Amino acid sequence: MEDVKAYIESGVLELYVLGEVSHDERVEVEAMALKHPAVKAELAEIEASMERFAGEYAVEPPAGLRNRVLNSVLTNLANDNTFRSRQPEVTGKIAPMPVPEKNDFYKYAFAACLALLVVSIVALADIYNQLQVSAHQVAALSTQNQHFSKTVSLQNDMLIMFRDTAYKLVKLQGTARNPSASMMLAWSPAKKKVMIDMGSLKLPVNDKRHQYQLWAIVTGKPVNLGVFDVKPDSAAAIKVMNPVENPQAFAITLEPRGGSVNPTMANLTVISKI
Amino acid sequence: MSKSRKISLTEEELVRSLRNRERIAVEALYDMYSSSLFGVITRIVNETTTAEDVLQETFVRIWNSFSSYSADKGRLFTWMVNIARNLAIDKVRSKDFRNQNKNQDIENTVSAIDEQQSTTYKPELLGIKDLVSTLRPEQKSILDLVYFKGYTHVEVANELGIPLGTVKTRLRMAIQELRKHFN
């Protein structure tokens, strides 16, 4: 009890009532008041006398101030009531933040991207196929075009040949072994060019191991003018052979593929004299 | 609820209705305590318009932070007057208030000086003449410094050039005198 008395007399309770104590002191005073009724009673005495003391200094505020103060407090009351009435509703309806929505967006976006990718790949494959077809068509057309231009060129040559008076048309007649065989060739003494008219060829079709060889007889000796094939579906109109000067005669023999140095007279098929 | 009839409740009733956020509690609070609080605020602030503002702030603060008041820890008035004192002292120490006092008009200066020089002419303080006379000057000054000027007891010790323990005992003696006077 001596401690309590000393505590009371230390003056800390007065400071406590005046709000002049630190946080630790405040906690201590409150603990002492709970523990010792004497401290609590002393505190009550001090508080009561300070309240009386303040009462002695009391100043009646101006009459208008009452409404002003009440209004500003009651504005707060209104705010408070708004909050208080709303708070239970809010606490009852607390819902998780719509975070999944955000996740959904990326999920859908990813799915959309995948779908777009698949569609793109399919479209790309389709376009690639179409491109391949077009490329084939272009190749075919180009081949056809080449073929036509070659044909036109040959036809042109043929026309030139027929129009050019310098060309001499020579008809080769079948020998005794091939009486039905015949063919035409053109020779220009000025240009020394020799051309075979493939359209008028009437020669037996040669096999794969043999080829026909054109010879010119110049001063009694045979001169090789090149080889050619006779095919059943041959489309070539004109074949240009090796040039020759001053031929006395033309002859064609059937020779092994690639041609021979000297003609095999046994296989003489057609012959002509100029 | 007319202005002429002031509302008065027991402290327990008042605390309960304040806790329940009742309108009538605010009115009762004002009617019961505004003059005591305004007296303390006026003593500290020394300027009527500012004192009125501080009183308003005090009631708003009391209302808004009432949940932090606990009857176990003391009387309602002790809690409220400390709020009022702190707000008033903060106001006096604020830059605005000090500048405002420096830039007073010439007409106001005379009365301001008057107010600062003598407290005896204040009509509201006439009633406590005998109370002040019961306190010895050193008790009165220490109570003034702590209660109305917001000095901490350390600051008081420095101001008066006395040991910290003496500040505490003198303050206690002053309040003991008051207790004797009121009883």
Describe the model.
The complex is a heterodimer of chains A (274) and B (183). By secondary structure, chain A is of the alpha+beta class. Chain A has a domain at 168-273: Immunoglobulin-like. Chain A is 52% helix and 22% strand. Chain A has helices spanning 2-9, 12-17, 23-35, 37-56, 63-92, 99-163; strands spanning 168-174, 182-188, 193-202, 210-218, 221-228, 238-241, 249-256, 268-273. An 8-stranded antiparallel sheet of chain A has the order 5-4-7-8-1-2-3-6, covered by helices on one side. In chain A, helix 3 (23-35) packs across helix 4 (37-56). Chain A is rod-shaped. Mean pLDDT of chain A is 82; it is low at 82-89. Chain B has helices spanning 11-19, 23-45, 48-64, 76-93, 95-102, 106-117, 129-134, 137-148, 153-160, 164-182. Chain B is mainly α and 183 residues long. Chain B is built from 10 helices and no strands. Mean pLDDT of chain B is 79; it is low at 109-127. At the A-B interface, helix 2, helix 4 and helix 5 of A face helix 2, helix 3, helix 4 and helix 10 of B.
Structural class of chain B: mainly alpha
As a percent range, the share of strand residues of chain A is: 15-25%
CATH topology of the domain at 168-273 in chain A: Immunoglobulin-like
Average the pLDDT over all residues of chain A and give the rounded result. Answer: 82
Distance between the termini of chain B: 33 Å
Q: Of all protein chain pairs, which has the greatest interface, and how many residues does each chain bring to it?
A: A-B, 46 and 49 residues
Comma- or semicolon-separated keywords:
heterodimer; A: 274 residues; alpha+beta; Immunoglobulin-like; eight-stranded antiparallel beta sheet; 8 strands; rod-shaped; B: 183 residues; mainly alpha; 0% strand
